[in-house]
Amino acid sequence: MTKKLAIVLFTFLVSNLYSQVKNFYGGVGVRHNDLFSQIDDVDGNNFWVDLDVNYDYKKPFIDKEGKFDFSLRFNDANHWMWSLKEAQLTHLWKNSELSYGRVLLNWVEIDKVWGLGKVNNLQNFDFFRPGQEGLAGIKYKYRFSQQFEAEVFGSMVYVPQLNPALAIDRKNGTITSKSPWSQPPASEVSSGGTTYDIKYTVSIPSLSDVAFKPSIGFNLKYTPVKDIHFTGYVLRKPENSLSNTVKAKLSSSSDVDVEVNTQLFDHTVFGGQLRADFGDHWKGYISYLTSIPETKPEDLTSITFNFGFGITTEKYQEDYVGAGIRYNAEDFNAHLGYLARISDFERKSLLDTIPRWSQAINLNFDYNFMSKYFAQFDLKYDTLTFDRLYSLSLGWQPLKNFRVNVGADIIGTPQFGDGFWVNYRRNDSYFTELKYVF
After folding, report:
1. Distance CA 276, CA 292 (A)
2. What is the spatial distance between Cα 117 and Cα 112, in angstroms, rounded to a whole number?
3. What is the spatial distance between Cα 359 and Cα 386, in angstroms, rounded to a whole number?
């Protein structure tokens, strides 16, 4: 009797351990973005369908963990976007960890909060919630003592950022948008009262030139006293997006022929962070990040053949400092943060990428009441360019697996502003969403 009881108890214990450490969850949602018929009709921003799948795995007694985080979106412009944010397996030992796959590097807080996309890539389904995508490679962490800890990341393979995308029609020589967050180039140009069609020829690097790009990085953590952490990091990797050069000339058919040459460049990212933990719920941080570009495409500013011209992308060093404080509890999370770009920026080319933020503050919170009522709010305000992002969502979960959300995502900019967000002013939404969660 005692032996049978022991077997039953052991089976019950193992089954409970297995169920507790194997976590599969996600959701399927349909969102309509024109609740009050007051927003502009932008292709890709009227409605979409989302799928999110998350799988966390930890097997007891074997010291192995795994993470899988995948998202898919289909919008009213018949465009599919997908993102593999994490897909990693981790082996755990007494003083070390080895992770491999698609790995997130949580080395600096401001890269995640503000969507800078310098350390990790961005998901970029929409710019309100840019999200992060990990890097393909191997990460090894070793704890020398209670005070010192080091991480090394390395990879010979690079998976570039995929979203948002442009559609290239090689036959007709056109480039169009597949997302409300991508900016297609002009399809025609007027000069002297005459309108010319623009025909594009796009040269894209081979898969091997993009994929077989090495990355190497190092992060050192020092904890002089409990709950005070200093980190310093350096990372050499490809940039998260491609760079272009453009050559244009008037063709014999009275069209403008434009050659677009696309290349992938490396950059070096380094910086440091101070983090302090105050009890079980409060955390504060001060972060510094610098991104130094490797080089820039060749200078094409002096092309004179056949009324031609050239445009190239300027490459700028970007320096940021930021600070913030977080409160994390079971049902309530909040964040108050500040970011300052301390490097100079002057747009010299139409192809230059404008920094998203210059001197900005962020207030964010989400509240979960009885696992039935939900509220989320996020405000970002740039005190230099006067760009504003407002995001509010209210949710109700009447049944275990069904949730209803209503809310608004609003972009505010000066009418003739020169910041990053002025080109996306039409991407507002007053939305309703029905979601099945599991």
Report:
1. 28
2. 8
3. 9
pLDDT for the residue numbered 264: 86
Residue pair 246/262 in contact by the 8 Å Cβ criterion: no
CB–CB of 405/395 below 8 Å?
Answer: yes
- Pair of tokens at residue 124: 């970029």
Q: With bands split at pLDDT 50, 70 and 90, how would you rate the model's confidence at 303?
A: very low
Give the list of residues 6+ apart from residue 155 with CB closer than 8 angstroms, or none.
135, 136, 137, 138, 214, 215, 216
Euclidean distance between CA atoms 12 and 148, whole angstroms: 40
Tokens matching residue 421:
């967000």
b vs e for 344-382, b when ≥16 Cβ sit within 10 Å of the residue's Cβ? eeeeebebbbebbbbebebebebbbeeeeebebbbebbb
- Positive or negative CA dihedral for 37, 41, 42, 46? positive
**Which of 219, 65, 93 lies closest to 151 in space, CA to CA?**
219
User: What integer pLDDT is reported at residue 63 of this predicted model?
Assistant: 81
Which of residues 347 and 134 earns the better pLDDT score? 134
Which domains does the chain possess? 21-437 (2.40.160)
Distance CA 351, CA 189 (A): 17
- DSSP 8-class letter at 302: T
pLDDT tens-digit map of 233-284:
999 999 988 887 777 777 666 678 888 888 888 999 999 999 999 989 999 9
Cα angle 351, 357, 360 (rounded to 5 degrees) comes to 165
Whether the Cβ atoms of residue 397 and residue 371 lie closer than 8 Å to each other = yes
pLDDT tens track for 147-181: 999 999 999 999 888 888 888 888 888 888 888 99
**Residue corresponding to tokens 């919008």:** 75
pLDDT average, residue stretch 10-17: 44
21 neighbors 426 (Cβ within 8 angstroms): no
Which amino acid, residue 298? Answer: E
Whole-angstrom distance, CA of residue 58 vs CA of residue 19: 10
**Residue 195, SS3?**
strand
Report how far Cα 313 is from the mean position of its chain's Cα atoms: 22
pTM value is 0.87
Do 135 and 175 form a contact (C-beta atoms < 8 A)?
no
